[in-house]
Amino acid sequence: MLQAYVDGEGSVQFIMENVMACSYEDEPRFIKLVNEAIHKGDVEKFAKWKNETSGKAIKARKAAAEKEAMEVEELGKQIGLKKSAAAMSEGELGQLIQQRAQSRMNGLLDRLEAEASGARKMGKRKEPTEEEFLAARSKVDGRKKGKNQT
């Protein structure tokens, strides 16, 4: 975590994005740990750190994280999830991913099948009426007779 602080030059956002499995709820603990490390002299204090750890900045990040969580929750409801992704077990998430992959594969196979069957942009071929068939037949017969006479 301290390495993320140094790499991000005091950016709390950088720390949150680069420390695995953390959420905005971990932010106060991270700020406390970094402040302790600064006081001990383990890490350098960056100018950005003071602005990033102000009460106003912390509230703004928390509000943004909560808004994003609400959007994710809404999106989950729209696609038919019974519970949030955070509340799902690893097995349930894996099953959801497999279902989505299967759905994509079925769509691909349907498109390829339609393409192979010739049902492309041409549309279905219309069956000629009896009169159209006879007219076409006599036209073809007329051409054949013309060729045979020469």
Structure description:
By secondary structure, this protein is an all-alpha fold. It has 2 domains: 1-80, no CATH class; 83-115. Helices cover 69% and strands 0% of the residues. It has 7 helices and no strands. It is rod-shaped, with a radius of gyration of 34 Å.
**What does the average pLDDT come to?**
82
What order do the SSEs take from the amino end to the carboxyl end, as H and E? HHHHHHH
Structural class per helix/strand content?
Answer: mainly alpha
Any idea what the shape is? rod-shaped
**Number of distinct helices:** 7
| Helicity, as a percent range | 55-70%
Q: What's the structural domain tally?
A: 2
The poorly predicted ranges are none
Bin the strand percentage.
under 5%
Radius of gyration from the CA trace?
Answer: 34 Å
Helix and strand layout, with pairings?
Layout: H1 2-7, H2 12-18, H3 27-40, H4 47-52, H5 55-78, H6 90-116, H7 130-149
Quick description:
The protein is mostly helical. The chain has helices at 2-7, 12-18, 27-40, 47-52, 55-78, 90-116, 130-149.
Which key features would you list for this structure?
single chain, 150 residues, mainly alpha, 2 domains, 7 helices
